[in-house]
């Protein structure tokens, strides 16, 4: 027997889950972001303390010095839950794929001068390892942070960082083969110009406060590095020297960094608006890690910018300060 | 065309190697021990992380592409299913109680797995396993969210779903799955991988998903079937990671064998105890049955698990001892569990019932050696009592096993007429267990298990009443207060299916589709 | 002999895959169940890109298997051309 169920008009008993309704202030239809995010993390009656961190509960807000009355005040403006996230990235992946195909099929890499190719590889290949470090750090924030609204975007960020490391790898293989990767790795481990940055990354690996780590990695380091490397060096400097192909191969990074900044700024703004103590702490962390990041990035930027590195890093830092002023931080 | 020599095309394995392990390095500004502080304390010895074999070689771009495709399909089906009132096409509204059990008991574990794998992924010094773990962390978030999204529409129309998150952390029987995962996450990263990646994902997950999901298919629940199968496609990757972890650890150092064997023994049993809920779901809660718990155990554990342990024998790994006990229990597990829930139906967030005559005959056929002899008479007696208006709801609180936290309802291996009790004394306190295996798990790590948040103990200690409750007040009703603390709506979420709001609404709505009233 | 198992969703995309696998592995047993197809084989099961491409009439990346995979057992060895499940003993 076929029943046409569409013809039935039913008044639902409720419009969403009770914990979501409490957050919305009323029983009304909720978005998939809201139902997939609110209160997803356990908060009560944990059975055992972690053997790897007996001083804390499994999820424990006191791992951070940032205090929030409610960790679900954070909202990802992109409203990314898993489905929305992967679909957004799949679209970007599609573009990246076309870009790689285009560069490869038209032989655009071969059209670049050998000097430019060398500079591009010297400048970009060690960044594979920086992105890998970012992946580790965002995994940390996701694992040890508190509340799904804050931690969920960090697993997305971690996997994006890995994706970026892999796009850089593909680019290295396209422009220079495996030797390019090896040379980049050697520079990362030994070349003086990269050691400040490597020290920065390794120092963030041992940070225990997930929010400070969030600031050091996503706000300070990536906040300076992406505008400096991808928006300035790649999109302006390399492009003007006949390296437009490079900009095509790193289009993902440029777009990604613009997109994720919206979430980062919203997160900083929410945490700073919560209390003067939070704001003071965020300002202190941001200043400290910004200054270290700027100092570490300057010698790296000399690879493409030579003597102008100082000045450009200065400009990027100024933009950075303006950006965070909008989030309520006086730097 | 130009004469340039084409670049050597790298094979999948080589390419993937550059995309992953080539990214990591040994730190020198901070010591490796500080960067990876949780890598050594469990006593597992790893000499060469590069010996790790990547079973699936998904790079992020491929991951995004394929996963987005799965998500698009899944949400299209969920949307269509909801728009067409698909919930009215399930066999009968009793079926929904399996979904309630799933959302309150399992979906929160998927979320825990997400965070647990993020932790494991951060903890391992090797690039290969770290990436596999992080990808799994992301997948597990997917599972938690697709389940909530697929089941959201049921929540709009039926009871028992509305406080799944709140209940998971509080309700007595949900402390069984919750404590299972809390146990795994609080263990070290290697044990977590053996517990979840291997024992649960590889050995037991098919028992949870395949029968549950094909149960959904048999019972007309397209929404659940779709998220279930879609999630399983990730599980195949996860299972493979679980197996790889075991092989890798065992190949690294002979000293790892006894540790790994102890973990496999422990986690096979821990996982099996959680599956008691699945057993009763299969045998009692699906209106249209797929296969019995016993059959599922035989196919997915004895047959497939048997092949696995035979393969692992070359490392010295043995089939866990508990498999013998499980084989003895397989004729009894679901009947004893359902009997307990029927007793405590007033304190559960789903409905219970006595199987009808057809269903009892199915159970007789599937369990020829046990059902008619031990369980049918009991069910018939309950049915008779209920018909006479004497439906009995147990209001006393049961003794719980300290390890698995299930009420002491299981019988002695080989003697289904005698309840199994074990006990141990630690620092002058007595602890109780449902089995030798749960006792052994406690005895191996008493410091951990004395921490258990046992729902019955917590109720007696007064920790499970709404804030401001005065238990000394006249007419204080402890059960009512506990249910309020659970956010369980008396008369809507609990009690018999017969006469429930779910039953009435489902019948009325189905009636609207077939009649012109 | 130990059993190898591969379970796929039953749909239009997997029909040619199942056919190709069945032809390449004459020892395999194919069991059509509601919404899924269970393939059992002793010891070893090979899924070959070329055979699937012949059935499909288009290029096929073995990683596309992920979309419709439900479960499997055995050790995996994956290259660009072949996806092999086996037990080593």
TrEMBL record, chain A:
SUPFAM superfamilies: Ferritin-like
Pfam family, one: Phenol_Hydrox
Presence of the UniProt keyword Oxidoreductase in the record: yes
Keywords: Monooxygenase, Oxidoreductase
Cell division keyword on record: no
CDD domains hit by this protein: AAMH_B
Origin species: Azoarcus taiwanensis
Highest taxon of the lineage: Bacteria
Record's protein name: Phenol hydroxylase
GO MF annotation: an example: oxidoreductase activity, acting on paired donors, with incorporation or reduction of molecular oxygen, NAD(P)H as one donor, and incorporation of one atom of oxygen
Signal peptide residue numbers: none
TrEMBL record, chain B:
Protein name from the UniProt record: YHS domain-containing protein
A GO MF label: monooxygenase activity
SUPFAM superfamilies assigned to the protein according to its UniProt record, in alphabetical order: Ferritin-like
Keyword entries, A-Z: Monooxygenase, Oxidoreductase
Domain of life: Bacteria
Ranges for domain YHS: 411-453
Coiled coil region boundaries: none
TrEMBL record, chain C:
Family to which the UniProt record says this protein belongs: Belongs to the TmoD/XamoD family.
SUPFAM superfamilies linked: Monooxygenase (hydroxylase) regulatory protein (SSF56029)
InterPro entries to which the protein is assigned, alphabetical: MOase_MmoB_DmpM, mOase_MmoB_DmpM_sf
Protein name: Monooxygenase
Keyword Oxidoreductase: yes
Alphabetic keyword roster: Monooxygenase, Oxidoreductase
Lipoprotein recorded as keyword: no
Domain of life: Bacteria
GO terms, molecular function: monooxygenase activity
Organism: Azoarcus taiwanensis
